[in-house]
Write the structure tokens for this entry.
Amino acid sequence: MDIKEEIQKANRLIAQELVQIGNFGLLLLWCILHFLVSIWYFLLEIAHVVESYIMSSGLMKNYKALDFGKLRYLGIVVGSEEASQTSKVIELLQWLEAIGVKHVCLYDTEGVLKKSKEAILEKMNNAIVFQEAVENDKLLDQKHMMLEFASFSDGKEAVAKAANLLFVKSLTSKNSSGDQEDEIFTEPHMTEALRAVGSGGPEPDLLLVYGPARCHQGYPAWRIPYTEIVELW
């Protein structure tokens, strides 16, 4: 009986050791994989930095062969700190104009770019504001660069204003006609209402996001359902 118990005890010890060895092996494998993935992303980061430096220094001209005719509208999201650097924003816009981009929406959360609008337009002699282009029927004008300035207030706050506008119009219509049937609002109704409150810009084909946060930072979500988003940091 004692010999049998000793054998069982030995088997249990062996099993425990095997489990510990297996756990150690899995942990070691996870650490190796984590290390390899970290190295891979580190190398990708270095490659992106080097590529950006080469392009900004003018050593690589490949971007000149790109067809920007398909880029009808470009959205740019910047942090409030970067938005306060007006000279760099102007330099970016001048570069975009030089390569043929004609429609740009500048967005920052706190509306810093909106406050710098006059200074930016003063330096961008060939630029007009999107709202003015709509009013003057110049949306198809390819001679000027159209700029739109947006902030967080053009997001949920704009939707609330547009919804309130639709409600007031619907209520006024019911009171005047006596028709008590519920009105169904469609996407075109909302688009028109957003334009009426000054937040009805087009959908960007491409959205560039500058900053460490991997999100659109409150850029109006209904304007980017099919937009390609590229994060730059």
Summary: The helical segments are 2-56, 80-83, 86-98, 112-115, 117-123, 130-135, 156-177, 187-196. The beta strands are 74-77, 103-107, 127-129, 145-150, 206-210, 228-232. The first helix runs from residue 2 to 56. The chain is about 50% helix and 10% strand.
